[in-house]
Amino acid sequence: MIAVGEETGALGDMMNEVAEFYQRDVEYAMKGLAAQIEPILILVLGAMVLFIALGVFLPMWSLGHVVLHAK
Fold this sequence. Notes:
The protein is mainly α.
């Protein structure tokens, strides 16, 4: 590309075209990466919420069993 740009005298235009091509390529790759990471993040957040909920509710259930069996 550089050689063609030098021969035609439009090196700046050719470099801008190459930069735009790589910019589009990087943007496309980032969209694909974000689409792949999103389900994993949802699962991780769901597991964290489950862990916190169990940490809150398990002691209450244990206390309920103790109260019911004490009578």
